[in-house]
Backbone:
């Protein structure tokens, strides 16, 4: 049985049909800066519990789903940093290597 992959926070934002999926609009509604939201979506910053709760309400999904998406974003960022550090390449170099081998 395969594990279902949770969508990222960015994917959840982009799936919203009742409002423009603008990072600025979502950040405005949450009372945070667009830069902070972008960093959270990239897994580079942590979003507080109350903000995660407001985001779940805004997107009309269960708070647990938002928490899982947030956790997944952080996990992928840590994995990327680990992989990047293991070969000494920058993210851009790693992307080029993956593209060259495909």
Residues:
């Amino acid at each position: 049985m395969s594990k279902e992959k949770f969508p990222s926070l960015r994917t959840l934002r982009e799936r919203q049909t009742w409002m423009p999926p603008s990072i600025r609009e979502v950040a405005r509604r949450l009372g945070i800066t667009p830069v902070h939201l972008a960093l959270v979506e990239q897994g580079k910053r942590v979003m507080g519990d109350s903000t995660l709760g407001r985001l779940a309400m805004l997107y009309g999904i269960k708070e647990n789903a938002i928490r899982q998406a947030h956790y997944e974003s952080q996990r992928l960022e840590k994995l990327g940093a680990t992989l990047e550090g293991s070969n000494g390449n920058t993210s851009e170099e790693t992307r080029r290597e993956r593209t060259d081998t495909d």
Remarks:
- The domain at 9-101 is CATH 1.10.260 (434 Repressor (Amino-terminal Domain)).
- The mean pLDDT is 79.
- Residues 28 and 34 are 8 Å apart (CA to CA).
